[in-house]
Amino acid sequence: MRITAAEPGKVNFELDIEKHHTNRLGILHGATLAAMVDTGGSLAVASRGLYSTGVSTDLSVTYLNSGGKIGDLVKGEVICDKFGKTLAYTTIKFMNKNHEIVARGSHTKFVAVAWKDEKNITDQLKPKINESQASEATRTSF
What region holds the Thioesterase domain (predicted)? Predict the structure, then answer.
């Protein structure tokens, strides 16, 4: 699995499908996608600055299409939807070579202990608020 792009809260990656990624039908195994949901969710949390990304509390995958066969490329995009003091929530989508959605997943992580790691860089990776967002936040805060 290769990371192809990353920014705070969002990571894109891809996987060249090899024999050990496939099931007995010769297509991408669902367990491979499930492992990528797990890894991808952790990467999304790490992209927000946590050195240790916590532990999984929930993981789900919905399979929609064939991911491909040996030699094909499957792409994933994972987003950290909510990044709290106790839990982090991520969603992921996978696309096949025909740009069809292969699967979508979600991954919830318990991060309360991870917040205590001295190697965290969460302050450096906080989302930037531009002037219009700051004005809107001020107007709607009361």
Answer: 26-101
Give the count of domains, the chain. 1
Q: Could you tell me the pTM of the whole model?
A: 0.84
Burial of 78 (0-12, 13-18, 19+ CB in 10 A): buried
pLDDT in tens, 13-38: 999 999 999 999 999 999 999 999 99
CATH code where residue 64 lies:
3.10.129.10
Q: How far is C-alpha 22 from the chain's CA centre?
A: 22
Give the range of the structural domain holding residue 78, as residue numbers without chain letter. Answer: 2-140
41: left (phi over 0), alpha (psi -120 to 50) or beta: alpha
